[in-house]
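Problem statement: downstream parser choked on a complex file, so we are re-checking the raw output for the copper (II) ion run. The parser issue turned out to be on our end (a line-ending mismatch), but while we're here, posting the original submission so the record is complete.
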Amino acid sequence: MRQDRAPRRGPAALIAALALALAGAGGCANPATSPVTEAPPTRPLAIPALEEGTGAGGTRAFDLVVDEGTHDFGRGTTATMGVNAGYLGPTLRMRTGQDVRMDVTNRLDERTTLHWHGMAVPARMDGGPHQLVAPGATWSPTWQVRNPAGTLWYHAHPHGDTAEHVYRGVAGMIIVEDQAAPAGLPDEYGVDDIPVIVQDKRFDDDGQLVFDQPGPSSTGFLGDTVMVNGTVGPYLDVRATRTRLRLLNASTARVYRLALADGRAFDLVGTDGGLLPAPVRLTAIQLSPGERADIVVTMAPGERVMLRNTSPEFGGRVGPNSRFGTGDYDVLELRAAQQLRPAPPLPTTLATWQRLPASAATTTRDFTIHAQIINRKPVDMGRIDEVVPAGATEVWVLRNRDPQPHNFHVHAVQFQVLDVDGAPPPPELAGWKDTVYLAPGSEVRIIATFPPDGDPTWPFMYHCHLLWHEDSGLMGQFVVVEPGQTVVPPPDPYDH
Ligand code: C2O
Ligand code: CU
C-alpha cells in the first residue's frame, strides 16, 4: 500500500546529516518540486461530512476510525488514509462548554494518534506523540470544550510519521461554536460556511501518492498539485451574498498567500484560536502549515472570482530555499448563483477579549531554532524541556537562526503575538494564534496563559509545523504543574 515510504532514519543519523548539510555552503540540492501545475476548476468542491457527535444532554461522543482507503483525485484510484472516509475526515462541530468524548479507533497496521490542534485539553487527552494508539486499539479521550468559537483541526501526530500520515489524509477540521459569538456570521455548514483545507501532493504515473523525504536542509515535502478538501481543480457554488471560508493550511511544508484574483478585499473575522474583536479588511492572507484564517467573501449574483495563491512573502533572508514554494496559481473558484440569498451586514463586534501586555508575564523563555533543532537539542520523548506553573502567563521569545523558514506551534494554549522583529503584529497576527510563521533571522515574541490544571507526567509539545522538521526533531516538551507536583518524565513510547 505504501510502497514509496522513505527509509526510516534514527535521530542520531539525522543530526549528523543535518550538521553535514549545514556545514556545506549553499545547502543541498532538492528535487524541483516547488512549481505547482494548475488544474482548471472543473470539479465541485468536496465538503467533508459534518459530525456533531451522538448522545443528547450529557457527553457528545464522536466515533473516529482511522483507516486506509482510496480516493479519486482525478488520477484513477489512489491509495490514501482517512478518518471515517477514504481521504481526510469529517468536520467535527462542538459547542463551548460541551463535554465531548472522541472514540479513536486505529485500523491502520501501524500506530498513530489524533491530536486536537488548538484545543485546550488535558495533557493526557492531547493526542500528541505520547498518546499512541496501537493498531486495532480504540483510545477515548474526554474533555470539556473550553475554546471559544473558532476553527481548529485534528491530525495524526505519531512521532516520525506525522508528515506521512497527515499527507496521506489523516486530518480534518473542528468547528467550535459558542453562544457568546454574535449572530450575523455565516454559519450554515456547507452552504455559506465552508471548510477550505488546502494541501499539496505529487502523484506517480499510476496515480499513487508520492511522498519522499527531502534533503536535510530542506523545508520538507512540496507537491506540484494543490487541492482543497481533496478536490483537485475545485469550484464552489456560492449561494449567499456572504460566504465564510474557513481556511486551513494542512500541507506538510508549503506556505500559501491567498488572495482573490480580481483584487477585491475580504473580511478576516478569525485567526487560529477564535474571532477577532472586529472584522478586518484584507486583500491577502498568508498561512504557513497549521495556521487557519476565517474569512468572509462578499459576492454579487453571477460573479466568478478565483481564490489564488500569490507568491508568499517569506521575509528575512531565505537561503538556499527558492524551492520553498513560490509562484501564482489558482486554488478555488467561487461561482455565485444568479440568485443569492441576501446576508445581513457583518457584526461590527465579534468578540471581546483584551490584549495581554508583556508586563502580565511572570517568566520569559527563549526558544532558538538553529540547525533545525530548538535550543541545541533534538526532541527526546523522555526529557522534559520546560516546566510551566499552572495558570502562569509567560512570554516566549522565538528566534529562527536558520537561513530557511520555520514556524512554531504550541500545544495546550492560544497565544498572542506581542511583536515581530520588534514591530507590533499586523492584523492577521493580532488575534488568538497557536502557530506562527518565523522568517529566516526573525524574532517573534508571544504571550500565553497556560492551563490552570497541572499534570506532572504528560507533556505538551511545541514544534515547527513543517511536518518533516517536526518529525526529524524540531520539537520540545513542556509540562504544566501545580504547586507541590513533582515532574515525573514519561516513559519514551518510541524506545524499544
Ligand atoms: Cu498540529 Cu503538535 O500539532
Ligand atoms: Cu521548521
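For whoever reads this later: Residues 11-23 form the longest helix (13 residues).
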